């Protein structure tokens, strides 16, 4: 197990508890106008579509920005907007002066309205703004208004979503907007090569100050071992998401900056309630079969924490308690009561998160002990998603950052677990659970929202809506780089302060 050396701030509604990071700080001299070479963990799979998860890719690379940023305390902070105020169902956002798009045109209210209207009007709006009836309008020379169907207490946090980034009017030519040369960030996307690589150059007119880097070259490397190999060979300067086995060789004293941060991320075993797992007893049997402490401490060599509930110690409202011990006889008894003493199921997952195949193998062995034959299938996530959302699967191991879409857990609870949820992989529907979430629509008070989060997590545990296995970390390793910090929400990597060193 790696020994944590320092703590990195993480983001949440009222602040995340610190995570662990390691590695020695870089000591080389800054290289003026340097180039950063990055081995990225996830490749764009939708042509850099701003209404898809590809928006995280361009945001991390420093190409795009939204009206609002999420601060380190989880509150809404100025981005392309400097201030905002609410009147009923309408919020007024004052725009930052002096912002220039990568194509040389100025940020205007019309440009903001154009961008927000486009993303709100796509056939499947991003999760952060889906179903809220978002409408934007110009409000004088330096402001816009954003109105929703009902008053939304967390709309500024929704507009920190990477999907709501503002692109230049030239990006919108009738089809999906182009992110090449149309953002506002410190780096300008200049070339892309499908899912293989991309190049960015410095945006000298950036409102937040001139970037230390002149160029960023990114290679999309979905194989964790290949990312480690590229870093070891000196082909890249930063590699994201390395497996624990590889991190051991990049330990303190080796010249690498190895960072890991406790993230609001949970690996859960999703159980399709449209199929064999419609029976609560079968779901309870799966839960009892799994030794979550062993998964965290042995299978993952202590690089994760065992999970009792959906929310863990990375957030103030998360469970601090250990999970219950496994109960193999109890699991077998429940399967017998359900008339399914022997089951054969598919256990699917994906390789981009290096811990998932390892966990799949360990879970397979634990389930075998109670009479469940889980047959592992590993493939890229993208092609699997339609079947998951349609309920055409048995078990799926998913790593989910529950503050990614919006830095407020209410968004994930609605999208992932409500009856009308757009990302309800478990196929769970409980009117009582939906009613439990009701107060979130009316209160922006952090304490009140946290009480709902706690109650919702307890209900999901009682109904065995999937099984939370471990709370994982975000990690990356750098060499010859200064100012590098791992973002637990995976929204930022390339910043104006990031510098190559000799």
TrEMBL record:
This is ABC transporter substrate-binding protein. The lineage of its organism: Bacteria, Bacillati, Actinomycetota, Actinomycetes, Pseudonocardiales. Pfam families: SBP_bac_5. InterPro entries: Peptide/Ni-bd, SBP_5, SBP_5_dom. Keywords: Signal. Gene3D superfamilies: Dipeptide-binding Protein, Domain 3, Periplasmic binding protein-like II. Transmembrane segments: none annotated. It comes from the Bacteria. Residues 1-24 form the signal peptide.
């Amino acid at each position: 197990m790696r020994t944590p050396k320092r703590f990195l701030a993480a983001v949440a509604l009222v602040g995340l508890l610190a995570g662990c990071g390691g590695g020695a700080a870089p000591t080389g001299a800054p290289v003026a106008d340097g180039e950063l070479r990055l081995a990225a963990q996830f490749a764009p799979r939708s042509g850099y579509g701003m209404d898809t998860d590809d928006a995280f890719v361009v945001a991390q690379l420093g190409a795009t920005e939204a009206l609002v940023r999420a601060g380190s305390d989880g509150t809404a902070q100025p981005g392309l907007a400097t201030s905002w105020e609410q009147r009923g169902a309408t919020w007024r956002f004052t725009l930052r002066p002096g912002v220039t798009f990568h194509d040389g045109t100025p940020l205007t209210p019309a440009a903001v309205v154009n961008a927000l209207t486009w993303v709100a009007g796509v056939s499947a709006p991003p999760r952060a703004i889906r179903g809220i009836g978002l409408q934007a309008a110009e409000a004088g020379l330096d402001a816009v208004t954003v109105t929703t169907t009902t008053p939304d207490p967390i709309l500024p946090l929704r507009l920190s979503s990477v999907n709501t980034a503002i692109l230049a009017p030239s990006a919108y030519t009738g089809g999906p907007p182009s992110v090449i040369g149309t953002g506002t960030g410190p780096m300008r996307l200049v070339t892309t090569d499908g899912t293989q690589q991309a190049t960015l150059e410095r945006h000298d007119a950036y409102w937040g100050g001139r970037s230390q880097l002149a160029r960023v070259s990114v290679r999309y490397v979905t194989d964790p071992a290949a990312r480690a190999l590229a870093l070891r060979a000196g082909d890249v300067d930063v590699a994201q998401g390395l497996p624990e086995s590889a991190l051991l060789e990049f330990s303190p004293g080796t010249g690498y900056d190895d960072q890991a941060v406790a993230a609001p991320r949970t690996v859960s075993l999703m159980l399709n309630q449209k199929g064999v797992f419609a029976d609560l007893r079968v779901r309870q049997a799966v839960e009892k079969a799994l030794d979550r402490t062993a998964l965290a401490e042995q299978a993952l060599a202590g690089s994760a924490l065992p999970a009792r509930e959906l929310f863990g110690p990375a957030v103030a409202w998360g469970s601090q308690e250990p999970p219950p011990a496994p109960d193999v006889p109890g699991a077998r008894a429940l399967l017998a009561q359900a008339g399914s003493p022997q089951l054969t199921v598919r256990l699917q997952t994906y390789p981009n998160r290096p811990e998932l195949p390892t966990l799949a193998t360990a879970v397979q062995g634990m389930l075998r002990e109670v009479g469940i034959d889980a047959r592992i299938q590993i493939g890229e996530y993208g092609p699997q998603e339609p079947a998951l959302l349609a309920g055409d699967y048995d078990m799926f191991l998913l790593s989910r950052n529950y503050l990614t879409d919006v830095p407020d857990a209410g968004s994930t609870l609605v999208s992932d677990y409500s009856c009308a949820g757009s990302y309800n992989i478990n196929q769970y529907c409980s009117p009582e659970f939906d009613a439990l979430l009701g107060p979130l629509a009316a209160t922006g008070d952090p304490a009140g929202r946290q009480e709902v989060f706690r109650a919702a997590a307890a209900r999901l545990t009682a109904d065995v809506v999937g099984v939370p296995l471990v709370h994982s970390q975000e990690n990356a390793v750098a060499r010859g780089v200064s100012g590098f910090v791992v973002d637990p929400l995976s929204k930022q990597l390339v910043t104006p302060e990031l510098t190559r060193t000799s």
